Amino acid sequence: MPSRDGKPWNFKELVIVFDTFLQEGKLSPTDARVKEDATLLDRTPSSISLRLANFDGLAGGAGLDHWGEICEKFYDIFSNAPTLVRQYAAYCRQEKQDVLEQESRRVRE
What we know:
It is a single chain. This protein is mainly alpha-helical. The chain contains five helices and no strands.
């Protein structure tokens, strides 16, 4: 699952960004929610915004139309399960936040 910022996308990252898409739709890189996800996932705001645009295109919106097979499969499987996505995204966000807090504590020690 390559990304434009050079790091492959993992499943949990896709869940988090897809949850953002389901709640907010396509957003610009300057949007606060995009910046929040970018910080949490250690990605650029542009990469988050582009992934949101991929999902928007898959949903029939004015988003990008070159989303790739992984995004298409992900969308096909999870677009009809927003509650499941929301619940798992909350878990993934908390897990990522816990890791960031642990890393921060180690740096301070």
